[in-house]
């Protein structure tokens, strides 16, 4: 769907405001992208330090395996529900300045999360040995030694489970208020803490050259948990500055509880499928690979998610509170007009400002995701040669090339799912995104069986797992776009289709050309630099193609400013932190208490 030309728009205040909102989205997303890039570069450096200090041997495999368990438990139990719930629940109250409602709802969410996750973390610590025994072992590793190492790490990682929940609630509160800076900064502190733990572990193990001591393993394990604390606990300060009083409780009013169940159930459905795929991939990596395959797989994933996190996530993050508020506003207006069939979720299609925002933001995410895919394809060989200077990562480059197409589906699953949740189409969002993650499981199993049937084949297993993930993400992307079209009308996909039709071929050609050139360079340093610079050039070519396909898409990201909205320019604490007020709405609304301060 395209925004009508100005000459054909009705003379309503939201017309110019919608364009201003798109420009504001670009400014805020650009700032968040810059902060995210800094934190992701440091996070990438953390993986490099891990490869250098921990390596890819028995301890690294046990560490990587155990480190997945708290995250999987958190995500399956409440993570999906939280990710889908906090922002849309709070966005309307924040926009209307109902501060007491914000505090009450956030406190109830926090209370429920801690009531569930604290006992779960305790159970993980107490049952570490049997849980470790359930996890598969790699070929060439003493099974008893690996189980003991995994169990020891699990006891140290158990505290991460409630810390993850606390962090997501606090992040949701901040994002609902248009505060994106702190959630982008705390990963920097987390990475610094974890890298310090890696360095200390390396110093404690280097002099002996033998098996690491209990003290060294404790530094590695507890240092990682301290990194999760650094990711979550600092967020309490900016939340308190907003005037949100968090007093954990278990009380939710009935309408809010019903919406929590609806949104949370949708998120949980998708996350169960996602975490099932994570567990399956972990098992397949061990079954088909060798002792270091899990660690190399995680290094590969760190490279894979870098363009996703830096390019796609900032756009989706900035737009999500606005989508939630816009759809809620239109639904409220429909109720006030006593027309229960009206509103954005009932066929408003391209007449709805909320659906216009959904259409344009999905196209923007699609454009930057294709650019990221081109970067992966171009830089994959250079990334393998870079990591190879530190440890054995054979198969990483080929795996990244196979993963590249799936990045587009991965990003579209994120954005289209959020649009559907904001439009109160939770069931459609749940099943569409779950379909993609569910498809990863059989696709990965089949690929590993075909490419590494006898086990002990690390590089082949990495490529097979990449093929399985790409298959699932393509399925998921197609499913969520189809669900979005059913909810908002076929026109909602028009900008995205135009962008993909022209930018995908450009990404394939540019990325493949740079990849081939980097393979022809014998010197590692030159190949790495060529891959990095070529990746940037490929991304620029893709964005140029996207702009040619639909100038308003990339223009929304590039345009540095615009006319003041109907209420004039507004500056808030968020604007001071992030360089611009990220909450200029498509339509005028009352200033909140938080804005006036």
UniProtKB/TrEMBL annotation:
Residues 331-351, 555-597 are annotated as: Disordered. Its main location: membrane. The keyword GTP-binding does not apply. Keywords: Cell membrane, Cell shape, Membrane, Peptidoglycan synthesis, Transmembrane, Transmembrane helix. One of its GO terms (cellular component) is plasma membrane. The chain crosses the membrane at residues 47-66, 72-96, 108-128, 153-173, 180-201, 213-239, 260-285, 305-323, 363-383, 395-416, 428-448, 460-485, 497-514, 526-549. It is found in: Cell membrane. One of its GO terms (biological process) is regulation of cell shape. It is a multi-pass membrane protein. GO terms for molecular function: lipid-linked peptidoglycan transporter activity. Residues 580-597 have a biased composition (Basic and acidic residues). The keyword Cell membrane applies. This is Integral membrane protein MviN. It comes from Actinomyces howellii. The gene is murJ.
